[in-house]
Amino acid sequence: MAAVHYAGVSHRYPGADSLAVDSLELDIADGEFIVLVGPSGCGKSTSLRMLAGLESVESGRIDIGGVDVTSLAPRERDVAMVFQNYALYPNMTVGDNMGFALRNAGMSKADTAARVLEAAKMLELEPLLNRKPGKLSGGQRQRVAMGRAIVRQPKVFCMDEPLSNLDAKLRVSTRAQIAGLQKRLGTTTVYVTHDQVEAMTMGDRVAVLEAGKLQQIASPRELYDNPVNTFVAGFIGSPGMNLIDAPVVDGAAVVGNVRIPVPANAEARVVLGIRPESWSLVGDGVGSVSVAVELIEELGAESFLYGVPPRGTDWSTQSGRLAVRVDRKLEIGLAETVRLVPKFDEVFFFSAATGQRL
Ligand SMILES: Nc1ncnc2c1ncn2[C@@H]1O[C@H](COP(=O)(O)OP(=O)(O)OP(=O)(O)O)[C@@H](O)[C@H]1O
Ligand SMILES: [Mg+2]
């Protein structure tokens, strides 16, 4: 077990103009489960692969357990990697797949078998140890891949989208299994996903990356409650926070017929962040924001209404629509106009120029 420290770590792929990872600064505690999340191409895999020693470090330093590993080969780092495409050896049994690396490293047959059995019990793979991977379900194969990493008892687990080959339901149950297992093993884990729900449900802390740069690292709740900028605000949450660009008149942002007092450092325009659940539907006669219903998404326990602002307004949303959580039994037709009022104490304010929280 070991803490991990990225000290200003950058990576540039040969011939690329910009850095794939730019001065990454990350302190991961011993035993912590950290999730790297962000859109495709933001540098998650590159960050992880530098930790595992599979990509070089252009500048900066990586420590594992207080030891500078920046120039060490992958096998000298005591890191186990689980990939999305966890190619298992098709001709080997589950047990042999799991023990392969140990045998290769010279461990005795008996010791290997004991380690494999222990991991198999944890992963509920014991009855399958003698099967070949071809005769396993996707979820079982994924657990074998986890098992291969676990038996090595590494200092750090590096996981790159290990669940993305599984169907939605299996992903949900497997993510809970992995998170539970990690807690039991207490092994420092860096986990990469582009799925913010996965990130929020699994991580002790979540690091949000965009365009090679770390935007924020915080607990899931803190990310949700205190996003530092519009990127994090819009990325976390499903649907993400509505980001509304609005003019500021006499110390208040004006959206439709609603005036929302803004912080003193706001400029002539401001970006308001208002989550889908932070709205109320109101009747006529109240100062409100009107939108035309474009789509209603019924998810069972809850519904989301997507509305478009009327033409010619002085405010707009970054996504072009406003997402609003509504009563799941609300009967409302497409193209109907609804009137909304935000919960004032749940509104976030961001600089229109920089996107930073005001
Ligand atoms: N082998 C490579 N050669 C050149 N550029 C690369 C290479 N691998 C990745 N990149 C570029 O580096 C940037 C970061 O890529 P990376 O694979 O780390 O992204 P990611 O966050 O893991 O994305 P995804 O969610 O799609 O897996 C991207 O712009 C990508 O195009
Ligand atoms: Mg990737």
Automatic annotation (TrEMBL):
Classification via Pfam families: ABC_tran, OB_MalK
Gene this chain is encoded by: ugpC
Higher taxonomy: Bacteria, Bacillati, Actinomycetota, Actinomycetes, Mycobacteriales
Name of the protein described by the UniProt record: Sn-glycerol-3-phosphate ABC transporter ATP-binding protein UgpC
GO molecular function: ATP binding
Record's keyword annotation contains Transport: yes
CDD domains: ABC_MalK_N
Tagged with keyword DNA damage: no
Signal peptide: none
All copies of domain ABC transporter, residue ranges: 4-236
InterPro entries in alphabetical order: AAA+_ATPase, ABC_transporter-like_ATP-bd, ABC_transporter-like_CS, ABC_transpr_MalK-like, ABC_transpr_MalK/UgpC-like, Mo/tungstate-bd_C_term_dom, OB_MalK-like, P-loop_NTPase
Keywords assigned: ATP-binding, Nucleotide-binding, Transport
NCBIfam families: PRK11650.1 (NF008653)
